[in-house]
Design goal:
CATH architecture of the largest domain: Alpha-Beta Complex
Number of domains: 2
CATH topology of the largest domain: Polyamine Oxidase, Chain A, domain 2
Shape: globular
Strand order of the largest sheet: 7-2-1-11-18-17
């Protein structure tokens, strides 16, 4: 019997769930409030530059995800970027494990996954109602959709806002335990190359900075452009800062670390505040079943393993459960 599903969220988790269900003959609609697909696998144009400002790369540790990565490499959606990054002290860990990037930025992967799917961007879900054994969804624009099953892939606090009142107490509490750290991401277009050491990324993992990369050295921007991530502690303490003030502060930290005059070399900036950037406490399983009937399942990087691989495997697990191939 052909079935139908609404997937809320067009990040890698939601898109992979949708792709698996669609490939099994289900009618699937994906709704996302953003202008495009990808979630935190995000690439933005700033003037002539192209900058990854969310997830910077991903690794593959599991056999199932490795199969996906091989497929993405074969179609040209991803490329190997490096096998290690410089650390705060300038060393480059020689671990030899591949780090992958999107071929034209991290959005190359979700754009590939979204091909041939019914994805509705710019549709913010405002009402979720179970009725007569199915789900009815209404968006801010007035779009209405009905389906047999519902997959929720946004960050857990956003999912709770939409459907928390529908859940049994134990499952609602499990979602509420998932937590995230924020991140200010600042993109700065430069007037000349900065010459960061190859491969163009410095992994600091500290405060007030977490990451610095040059998108031109990385291979996705035609002109020099930095992406700088503030640390989670600094980002949380300063989340109310206006974008320009945050950019000046974060670039000041980068200037101090790199020992160069960034202020005089910066042509333009763009700033993003990621409220749900890093998972600080996850749900131990790769999915959470909210309701058995009508089926409601939660997935994303807050479930199981974190980061891109964890989100991908979570989306696949959600589809597996709906298809009767996996356990909750």
């Amino acid at each position: 019997m052909s079935r139908s599903c609404i997937v809320v969220g067009a990040g890698v988790s939601g898109l992979l769930a949708a792709r698996e269900l669609s490939g099994s003959g289900w009618r699937v609609v994906v709704l996302d409030k953003g202008r495009g697909v990808g979630g935190r696998m995000a690439t933005r144009r700033v003037g002539e530059a192209r900058c990854d400002h969310g997830a910077q790369f991903f690794t593959s540790r599991s056999e199932r995800f490795e199969g996906l990565v091989r497929e993405w490499l074969a179609v040209g959606a991803v490329r190997e970027w490096s096998r290690g990054f410089a650390s705060a002290g300038g060393e480059r860990p020689p671990d030899g494990h591949p780090r992958y990037r999107g071929a034209e930025g991290m959005t190359s992967v979700p754009k590939h996954l979204a091909r041939n799917l019914d994805v509705r961007s710019g549709e913010r879900v405002v009402e979720v109602t179970p009725k007569n054994g199915s789900w009815r969804i209404r968006t801010e624009s007035g779009l209405a959709e009905t389906a047999d099953a519902l997959v929720m892939s946004p960050p857990a606090p956003q999912a709770l806002t939409l459907v928390g009142d529908l859940l049994p107490e134990q499952r609602r509490e499990a979602l509420a335990r998932i937590s995230y750290d924020p991140c200010f991401a600042v993109m700065a277009v430069l007037d000349r190359p900065l010459e960061l050491p190859e491969p163009g990324g410095i992994q600091l993992k500290g405060e007030p900075l977490d990451w610095i990369s040059d998108n031109a050295v990385k291979g996705i921007s035609p002109v020099p452009a930095l992406t700088v991530h503030a640390g989670p502690g600094w980002s949380r303490e300063n989340e109310s800062l206006p974008a320009q003030e945050a950019a000046e502060a974060v670039l000041g930290f980068a200037e101090e670390h790199l020992g160069v005059d960034l202020a005089s070399r910066t042509r333009s900036t763009s700033t993003i505040f990621w409220r749900y950037s890093w998972v600080s406490r996850n749900h131990p399983e790769p999915l959470l079943v909210g309701l058995e009937e009508p089926p409601l399942v939660f997935c994303g990087d807050g479930f199981g393993g974190a980061k891109v691989e964890g989100a991908a495997l979570s989306g696949l697990a959600a589809a597996d459960w709906l298809l009767g191939r996996g356990d909750a």
